[in-house]
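Input set for joint prediction.
Command: fold jointly, output tokens.
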Amino acid sequence: MKLVVAVVQDKDSNNLSNALVNANYKATKLASTGGFLKAGNSTFMIGTEDDQVDDVLDIIKANCQSRDQLVAPISPMGGNADSYIPYPVNVKVGGATVFVLPVDQFERF
Amino acid sequence: MKLVVAVVQDKDSNNLSNALVNANYKATKLASTGGFLKAGNSTFMIGTEDDQVDDVLDIIKANCQSRDQLVAPISPMGGNADSYIPYPVNVKVGGATVFVLPVDQFERF
Amino acid sequence: MKLVVAVVQDKDSNNLSNALVNANYKATKLASTGGFLKAGNSTFMIGTEDDQVDDVLDIIKANCQSRDQLVAPISPMGGNADSYIPYPVNVKVGGATVFVLPVDQFERF
Ligand code: NI
Ligand code: NI
Ligand code: NI
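tokens >
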């Protein structure tokens, strides 16, 4: 038994939840902030058999991997036009930090 | 030293807190949602000596074990009387998912 | 790789966050309540190399160690003057409870 602890961005949180449920994994989501990832984030705890860890990691990677996103520029309100970029820009979004912890004992009551 | 991580239903959370305090265990409660248990839940972290793990598990079981609860039917408002069940029904409540994690080092400052 | 889990008082939480960032450690903060420490608290998860654990523990100790704080008495409103203490008193504040957990596998996506 392992406990997979994954910190992911809020924007990927729903997709990851759904993908885990569809693959029949049970996860608990903890409210978390800052740190590993700059944007708002969530921490998932997923209990898995040893031979399912790779599958769980694949699901996290598929739903949360760091990637570029094209963001349309926002027109500056009330001046400061100097900093206005008049074309879409690539921004890094997503990403996951994952710890696989050993479990000495697992119980369900 | 072990770190006991227990996900329990919100409705059992206060009873578990009180029982742990009475038995002189120190616990931290994390806000959590969904996953292991369908209803709203809380995640307890309890640091214990190795020889106290069984006692802590007994306390969690005594306060959170999955059980049937007789729920009185709610009278349907504004029709849909077809789905009305005119007698109390058994509903599963409670339950706990517990991971006992090894601890390499423990410090209090 | 280790996962350092530290429960600290809310009042020390910002200082600890800043000190960890300044030392280039990445931490995630979980909302937590009660238990190990009486006042409101926060739980930090910090992933570190094995040989950085001592440094992280030093940072936690420097920012969160239990200490005395001189608290000015609050003038009683509307009576109960019997319990009024007309001089500053020492109150214990701060403190940290820290678990260093072994990590089987660490991934960033
Ligand atoms: Ni195992
Ligand atoms: Ni031990
Ligand atoms: Ni290691």
